[in-house]
């Protein structure tokens, strides 16, 4: 299991959330198993997203899609207020 962890500043949550939902099919088609949207309790202009995948390759491929297709076009990501940070993480197995 791999998780794509994304965090970035936003202009406002409603704008960002509307844009995020437009890509629900893309997430599903990319193999997202579960998603979590988190917001810091002390910063309404920041968001964190965690997307779970079956494999590291799938998470890396979706990160590439976001980096090259979504985040490079302001029409695709109108709520962004800065550069996203995206990391692919793997869950360590017992004893690792």
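^ structure tokens above, recovered residues below v
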């Amino acid at each position: 299991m791999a998780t794509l962890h994304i965090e970035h500043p936003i202009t406002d949550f409603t704008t960002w959330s509307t844009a995020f939902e437009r890509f629900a099919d893309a997430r599903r088609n990319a193999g997202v198993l579960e998603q979590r949207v988190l917001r810091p309790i002390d910063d309404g202009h920041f968001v964190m997203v965690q997307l779970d995948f079956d494999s590291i390759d799938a998470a890396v491929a979706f990160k590439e899609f976001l980096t090259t297709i979504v985040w490079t076009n302001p029409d695709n990501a109108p709520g962004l207020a800065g550069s996203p940070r995206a990391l692919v993480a793997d869950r360590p197995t017992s004893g690792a």
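The CA atoms of residues 30 and 62 lie 7 Å apart.
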